[in-house]
Amino acid sequence: MEQPLGRELATTGRVVRDRLDACLGQHGASLATWMVLRCAEHEEGLSQSELAQRMDIEGPTLVRHLDRMEQSGLVERCRDEHDRRVVRVCLTPTGRRRHAELIHVAAGFDEQLRSLLDEHELETLRRVLGRIRERFHPDSTTGGSDGDGST
């Protein structure tokens, strides 16, 4: 019996996330740590709420990660100088070094994924996944669900 497409996408996403997390784990990190480091490196001074949104996680979950990372000396949190209610997240020099180390792990994993596809398949996959994300993104004006909803 053929699996519903939503279930296949969800399962594949979970398998890929778990495998990347395991690769990062071999280097003393986690997927959550990598995501915080990557976002904070690419967009310096994000607020905690912006960072949680970029990572697609809830604020309390992010706070747990940030607490751990702050204790490890990877990030620091400081109040926004214009709005004291806003807490900004910045990488420390140690966090920048850790990001530089882990970028090679993430790139190696990406290379493994790419090796499974030829150029045409990669372009098709990117186009199709983009179309699916656009259609079902929470901010999409045409959102909703079609099919049996099995994921």
Provide the helix percentage: 55-70%
At the fold tier of CATH, the topology name is Arc Repressor Mutant, subunit A
User: Could you tell me the radius of gyration in angstroms?
Assistant: 18 Å
Could you give the distance between the termini?
Answer: 15 Å
Instruction: Count the beta strands.
Output: 3
Order of helices and strands: HHEHHEEHH
Weakly predicted, low-confidence segments: 142-151
The figure for the number of domains is 1
Biggest sheet: strands, sense, closure? Answer: 3 strands, antiparallel
> If helices are DSSP runs of H or I spanning 4 or more residues, what is the number of helices?
6
What is the CATH architecture assignment?
Answer: Orthogonal Bundle
Structural class determined from secondary elements: mainly alpha
CATH C-level class is Mainly Alpha
Outline type: globular
Order of strands, main sheet, comes to 1-3-2
CATH superfamily assignment?
Answer: Winged helix-like DNA-binding domain superfamily/Winged helix DNA-binding domain
Mean pLDDT score, rounded?
90
Percent of residues in β-strands: 5-15%
